[in-house]
Every structure is written in C-alpha cells, then in structure tokens.
Amino acid sequence: MRLRTTEMVRTGELPDQAEQTAIRESSARRADEGVPLEAVVGAYRIGAEKCAAHVFPAAEPGDLSDLLLVQRHMLTCLRLVSCEVAAGYAQERQTALSDEQVALQSLLSRLPEGGSPRPRPTAPASDCRPAT
C-alpha cells in the first residue's frame, strides 16, 4: 500500500476513506501472513522518515514555519495510519483466534464422549461399494 505521501505533506490532506480501508486490509493481510505488528507500523514510519529526509535538507533558513507545518502534517498522517494499521491487524488476529477457539472447543467436546481427539474421516463422495 503506497500512500500519496508527497501530496499529503504538500496539502495537509489526510488519507481518504478508500485509502484508510486499503491500509486496514493490507494490515490484516500482514497479520494473516504472520508479519509482526511492529514491522507493519514501522514500515509507515520509515516512509515518513524518508519523506522528512527528502524535504528537510532542501529547506532554506526562512522555511521554518513551513517545516513545522510539514512535520505536523506528517505526524497527523502517521497517527491516522497507525490507528488503521492497528485496527486491521487486531481484527484479523481476533478472527484467527476465534477460529482456533472453535476448533479447540470442537476437539474438547469429543473427548468426554470417549471420542477420538482426531476429526472423523469422511468418505469421499465417489466411494461406491459393489452390491452383494
């Protein structure tokens, strides 16, 4: 997911709803892939640092107020992006944990009945036996 970082810094515009949704979905995919949350959030921070490394050295002494404005825009954007990343990641992990919990409950419910902890094999649909 690439943000319109340069445009956002220049205009102060934050990610729109579609971009926020894309950030959330991308973060959920990273959670599903097992990428640590700190790595996902860190990627956006690295992007902001690269943007600052590009913008700040080009500034003139009279640009201090503009630099402060750019920094404020970047921090606001990072706050919003970090919240979307965390929300998408947490939602995916919660879904995965719920699925695991259902599987575990199913397993535990078979044990008191004297059943095997292994799921019962199902016969393939093409299992035809000859008539005797």
Walk me through what this model shows:
With 132 residues, the protein is an all-alpha fold. It has one domain (5-110). It has 4 helices and no strands. The protein has helices spanning 5-11, 17-33, 37-55, 64-110. α1 (5-11) packs across α4 (64-110), α2 packs across α4 (64-110) and α3 runs antiparallel to α4 (64-110).
In brief:
The protein is mainly alpha-helical. It has helices at residues 5-11, 17-33, 37-55, 64-110.
Please trace the helix and strand order, writing H or E for each element: HHHH
Which spans of ≥5 residues are poorly predicted at pLDDT below 50? none
Alpha plus pi helix count: 4
Q: How many structural domains can be distinguished in the coordinates? A: 1
Determine Rg (CA atoms, Å): 25 Å
Largest sheet: none
Region (Disordered): 108-132
Domain RsbT co-antagonist protein RsbRD N-terminal: 6-101
Protein name: RsbT co-antagonist protein RsbRD N-terminal domain-containing protein
Organism: Streptomyces lateritius
Please render the helix and strand layout as text.
Blueprint: H1 5-11, H2 17-33, H3 37-55, H4 64-110
Helix pairs in contact: 1-4, 2-4, 3-4
Keywords:
132 residues; mainly alpha; 0% strand
